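Input chain follows. Return structure tokens only.
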Amino acid sequence: MKFDNVINANIPYSFVWNEWSEFYRSAVLITSNVIDRIPAKVKENKALKHIYLGIDYGVDYKELDIVCSDYSLTLEDQEDMLHDDFDWLNEE
């Protein structure tokens, strides 16, 4: 994801070896308490969006709040195989 004209961001750092980040409970909001806390002068003449991302880092769950005027999401064509050995699921 790419965020343009970021006004406010709360991005707690987290990194865990051998864990893949998983996104949960994510949303794009046009009204929120986070946007309401931004001074009126800063919000003037801007169509702000509050991007909320809930990310499970395997051990930790973090919530990210980003307020910006524009964003984009680009997906790659290449598929990544995270795991291809599922035989252990059939073991009793």
